Amino acid sequence: MRIAVACVALALLPACIAKTAVDIVTLPVKAVGAGVDAVTTSEAEADRKRGREMREQEERERKQRRDSY
Questions:
Q1: What is the pLDDT of residues 7-36, one digit of tens each?
Q2: Burial of residue 28, with CB atoms counted within 10 A of its CB: 0-12 exposed, 13-18 middle, 19 or more buried
Q3: How much of the chain exceeds pLDDT 90, in percent?
Q4: Residue 67, CB half-sphere, CA atoms under 13 Å: how many?
Q5: What is the mean pLDDT of residues 56-69?
Q6: DSSP character for 50?
Q7: How many CB atoms lie within 10 A of CB 55?
Q8: Rounded CA gap, 40 and 38, in Å?
């Protein structure tokens, strides 16, 4: 029984080590990608911001017109 458990553990160990090695190697790439993503603005984000600014400007103009009467 102990031999069977030891064989199973030895069979699984290389896969675990390989996965850990892949995670370690890809970590810097993921970190750089996250940093670039945080610094840059996507087109969709820019569109949302532009739309929000336009709505706010229209609201300010409506208030000015209303207050001027």
A1: 666 676 676 667 777 788 888 888 888 888
A2: exposed
A3: 28
A4: 6
A5: 91
A6: H
A7: 10
A8: 6
